[in-house]
Hints:
By secondary structure, the protein is an alpha+beta fold. The protein has 2 helices and 5 strands, in the order E-H-E-E-E-H-E. Strands 4-3-2-1-5 form a 5-stranded antiparallel beta sheet. Strand 2 and strand 3 (50-54) form a beta hairpin. The protein starts with 9 loop residues before the first strand and ends in a 6-residue tail after the last strand. The model has no long low-confidence stretch (mean pLDDT 88).
Amino acid sequence: xxxxxxxxxxxxxxxxxxxxxxxxxxxxxxxxxxxxxxxxxxxxxxxxxxxxxxxxxxxxxxxxxxxxxxxxxxxxxxxxxx
Length: 82
């Protein structure tokens, strides 16, 4: 499955990165998106991008980049209600 197919509040493990443009691949790696890293989908739009969390950083990705990140589902994580 690709990251664009992930569900909101889902936690995924990156299996493979097939991002077409090398500059995007380098930027993703510099912020911690590598094979084996955990990603949580914070929000996503049906025809828009995806907001993810890696470690304690939140990043917005366009659909093209998110569709090049192959992930596997780990668990569903709900935000705490205060």
